[in-house]
Amino acid sequence: MASLTLHRVFVYGTLKRGEPNHHVMTNTENGTAKFVGEGKTTESWPLVIASKYNIPFLLHCKGKGQRVLGEVHEIDDKMKAFLDDFEGHPNFYERDRINIEFLTERTGLESGESVEDIEDLDDF
C-alpha cells in the first residue's frame, strides 16, 4: 500500500530533472515523486561542487555564499527513505529544512515555505 504522507523536498544537484541521478526520482520502485516547481533558497548558502564526480553540496553556513537554484518535488515516505539512503543521510549528508522562494507557477505552495533539502547540507 502506498504512503499517504507527502513530503516537499528541495533538490539542487544531480537529482534535478535532466541531471544524471534524476532517474531514481522517476523509478516507481523507489516510491513516488512529483515535480512541483522551480525555486531558490531565500537565504544564501555556500554551494560546493567537489570530487572527481562533480558532486554538489551545501556547506552548513547559512548566510554565506549565494541563493541556490533548484526544484521542489513532493515525495512519499518510501521515496524519502530511499533518497535518505541514496544520499547517505545522516552519515554523509544531513537533511535539513530550508525556506524556498518559488520561481515558477505551481499548485498550493507559498513562496518562503519551508521544505526539506534532500541533497543536504554538509557539516564541513
Annotation keywords:
GGACT; GGCT-like_sf; disordered C terminus; gamma-glutamylaminecyclotransferase activity; 2 helices; five-stranded mixed barrel; 124 residues; mainly beta; Gamma-glutamylcyclotransferase family protein; Hypothetical upf0131 protein ytfp
How would you portray this structure in words?
- The radius of gyration is 14 Å and the shape is globular.
- The chain has 124 residues and is mostly beta strands.
- Helices cover 12% and strands 41% of the residues.
- Residues 119-124 have low confidence and may be disordered.
- The termini are far apart.
- The protein has one domain (6-122): Gamma-glutamyl cyclotransferase-like (Hypothetical upf0131 protein ytfp, Roll).
- The chain has helices spanning 23-26, 77-87, and strands at residues 6-11, 33-41, 47-50, 55-59, 69-76, 94-102, 113-122.
- Strands 1-5-2-6-7 form a 5-stranded mixed barrel.
- Residues 9-102 form the Gamma-glutamylcyclotransferase AIG2-like domain.
- GO terms for molecular function: gamma-glutamylaminecyclotransferase activity.
- InterPro entries: AIG2-like_dom (IPR009288), GGACT (IPR039126), GGCT-like (IPR013024), GGCT-like_sf (IPR036568).
List the helices and strands and how they pair.
Elements: E1 6-11, H1 23-26, E2 33-41, E3 47-50, E4 55-59, E5 69-76, H2 77-87, E6 94-102, E7 113-122
Parallel strand pairs: 1-7, 4-7
Antiparallel strand pairs: 1-5, 2-5, 2-6, 3-4, 6-7
